[in-house]
Amino acid sequence: MRDTRESRLLLVLLIAIAFALITVDIRGGEDSPVDGARQAAATVFGPIESGVSAGVDPIGNAVSAVRDSGARHDRLKLLEEENAALKARLGSDDRSRSRLKQLDKMLKTAGRGQYGIKGAEVIAIGAAQGFSWTITIDVGARDGIKRDMTVLNGDGLVGRVTTVGPDTATVLLASDPDFTVGTRMESSDELGFASGQGDRPLRVELLNGKAEVKKGDRLVTFGSQADRPFVPGVPVGVVSRVDPSGGGLTRTLYVTPYAGFTKLDIVGVVVEAPKKDPRDTVLPPKPKPTPRPTVTVTVTPSAEASADGQNQPEQ
Questions:
Q1: Do residues 184 and 204 make contact, with C-beta atoms less than 8 angstroms apart?
Q2: What role does this protein play (predicted)?
């Protein structure tokens, strides 16, 4: 057909008719007036389409295979990533055993002190929160956690809750310079205040400047009014150094804390205080002194000495 004005008008007319038929077909749905024509066309052209598809099926299958292969690869990669994340969460067998040991020790500590605790996992450290000595734990307001609750682990005092979100909370560690807790000496009951010094031992100011204290003495928390922020009887640490008494109103001690603040993992928030002060019952057993071996030296006379003795002339 030549490109004339009449042929162009015919092409426009055919296109208009085609759009009109499409519109009627869509609006008619299952009762479309062109449904019969469509079925007739399918009857006529169906075998032709089947023949053509048979010729191109290998190519189509190959493309589908490549596409499905990519999808399977993506799914496999996703599963591998999820598996790796799960393994990281559960940890290796050694780490799992370590965490179970920590949890068991913490529950025994809480049991001795009759503390009602909510177990938690440390999920962040203070570097993300202003380089202070803090940690973030994975329990919050929805778990009953409130500000100014005592935090401990199986070794002893960890810190206190300072900020609470719906599902997480921030704990100020006992090693932070802004941390202060009332303490009581084991047996002597001397009272004082312990303050954090970062990675150095806690500094304790005893209220009695003439108190008799020696290296190895132990301290626990004295407790706060209404048990907030500190419940009584939580182990704090062991005296490592005592400043000479200068006749002042207070006496300064340096205490190595029981808790290792650089390796915290499983901790507990005290959500229910004990009905009575556990006093010193939560402290770990004192280490038994290692006996020093006694060496006995027995002197045996030599054969030469015996012979000389026998050869001595009688007097």
A1: no
A2: Involved in formation and maintenance of cell shape.
